[in-house]
Design a protein that fits this description.
- By secondary structure, the chain is an all-alpha fold.
- It is 84% helix and 0% strand.
- It has four helices and no strands.
- It has helices at residues 2-11, 15-43, 52-84, 88-118.
- Helix 1 packs antiparallel against helix 2 (15-43) and helix 3 packs antiparallel against helix 4.
- The longest helix is centred in the middle third of the chain and has 33 residues, at 52-84.
């Protein structure tokens, strides 16, 4: 929601609101990453219980999510760096790639969680 709100704010030329949303999105993402890594360090992994096409779909989403989750970190850091240095044209060019990838990683993370922990496969 923060990413979408930040995008809508910049479209409306509300720069302060855009900056606040994107800073909050970065903070929430960083906190999530720390808690995610801590949880998996303490509790290990959970095996996916689905079979057949559900298993294929789950791993397709998981693999794309994992690859892009790694790739998004330097993109987000560079995009924020450019904004903080007031290098707006460069920021805008990179943000056109960063935002959709960051949104994809955020949404697929929720989908992976839902498929792994909330769906009943029996």
């Amino acid at each position: 929601m923060l990413l979408t709100a930040g995008f809508l704010f910049i479209r409306q030329k509300k720069i302060a609101a855009h900056r606040a949303c994107m800073t909050a999105a970065f903070t929430v993402s960083a906190l999530f990453l720390v808690t995610y890594l801590t949880h998996h360090a303490l509790h290990g992994s959970t095996r996916f219980q689905g079979t057949g096409s559900a298993r294929t779909l789950y791993f397709a989403i998981l693999i794309s999510h994992t690859i892009l989750a790694v790739a998004i970190v330097p993109l987000v850091l560079r995009t924020l760096f450019l904004a903080n240095r007031n290098r707006i044209p460069e920021h805008q060019r990179l943000a056109r790639w960063t935002l959709p990838l960051w949104l994809y990683v955020s949404v697929t993370g929720v989908v992976v969680y839902w498929m792994l922990y909330q769906m009943r496969w029996n």
